[in-house]
Design brief:
Helix 3 runs parallel beside helix 4 and helix 4 crosses helix 5. 29% of the residues lie in helices and 27% in strands. Strand 11, helix 6 and strand 12 form a beta-alpha-beta unit. The protein is of the alpha/beta class. The strands form three sheets. An eight-stranded parallel beta barrel has the order 8-9-10-11-12-13-14-15. A four-stranded mixed beta sheet has the order 4-1-6-5, with helices on both faces. The protein has a three-stranded antiparallel beta sheet with strand order 3-2-7, with no helix packed on it.
Length: 310
């Protein structure tokens, strides 16, 4: 069975809504909603196909876009490889040039629409930010909450509260304060700990380290679940428990784990392309690495110092 290559777009308007269109009733996966796009023609790049498809389907011209996620999905009748881009700049007014219904939808409302199974990782990717802050050890950090507030003011919208030194009671107390601070900035907070602690503190979800990932047989009953991964087996386990995203590390050498052999960007790309979920690059990352990360299939970057220090 050959693989059909498809370019698709998550097109955002100035209000942060995303464009979706409905497939014709007689088409493959007819009646379902999707992100606009279409299959590549011979000799076309994904970006070229996307420009052509958006012009032909919805009458807009891309002015600013970047890679978002690549998804392979095997249906019984065909296999597809979706090369998905995030479009945040365009000219023209979107309309169904082929008579297809379309909607501008708030991210929180996407769950009300039925999408093909291949679109599930895309739905997660469009709802996740491009940077993921892992906090330094709170017990060793002066003015922890004020400095967290500074990071949130710089645009961080996803935070992992991680501590190896605080006792459980202290950790939950700090988590409740951090949750309130994050929510005031419209950010989400995950706890690196037992799922029960995340529920007790009001956190948005949990981040599973490697031991907790392997100990999990089902997805924790929380809104958002991340997982730390280092190889293809752990990425497969994260997908098997239906995690929303994964961290893959170390991409580059780090001072915190000098003994770990870096993956490098080529290996990161191969592993993230094979994973059916968004993947953040971790290990030696800073804001200057964002475009490189996007170009190699990453959702974005995850970092401690690179995002905490500004």
């Amino acid at each position: 069975m050959g693989v059909m290559q498809v370019a698709a777009a998550a097109v955002f308007d100035r209000r942060g809504r995303v464009l979706i269109t409905q497939r014709a009733a007689g088409a493959h996966q007819g009646g379902l909603w999707e992100f606009p796009g279409g299959k590549l023609e011979p000799g076309e790049s994904a970006r070229e196909a996307l420009q052509r498809e958006l012009r032909e389907e919805v009458g807009i011209h891309i002015t600013h876009a970047r890679p978002l996620i690549r998804v392979r999905h095997d249906y019984p009748e065909r296999a597809v490889l979706l090369d998905v881009w995030r479009v945040e700049g365009f000219t023209g007014k979107a309309h169904g040039r082929e008579g297809q219904p379309l909607r501008w939808v708030a991210l929180a409302d996407l769950a009300a629409f039925d999408f093909p199974a291949a679109n599930r990782p895309i739905l997660r990717a469009v709802s996740l930010p491009d940077r993921y802050l892992i906090t330094p050890e709170p017990a060793e950090t002066v003015d922890f909450l004020p400095r967290l507030a500074e990071a949130l003011a710089r645009g961080v919208r996803l935070v992992q509260l991680r501590s190896k030194q605080l006792g459980e009671r202290e950790y939950v107390r700090l988590a409740r304060q951090a949750v309130a601070l994050c929510h005031a900035h419209r950010a989400r907070l995950l706890l690196n700990g037992a799922p029960a602690l995340a529920r007790d503190s009001g956190a948005d979800g949990v981040h599973l380290d490697s031991p907790r990932l392997w100990a999990s047989t089902v997805r924790p009953d929380l809104d958002l679940v991340g997982a730390s991964c280092h190889d293809a087996r752990e990425l497969a386990q994260a997908a098997a428990i239906d995690a929303d995203f994964a961290l893959l590390s170390p991409v580059a050498a780090t001072t915190s784990h000098p003994q770990a052999l870096p993956l490098g960007w080529a290996r990161f790309r191969a592993l993230s392309d094979a994973a059916p979920l968004p993947v953040y690059a971790l290990g030696g990352m800073a804001l200057r690495d964002l475009e490189t990360a996007w170009a190699h299939g990453a959702q974005g970057i995850a970092a401690i110092r690179g995002l905490w220090e500004g």
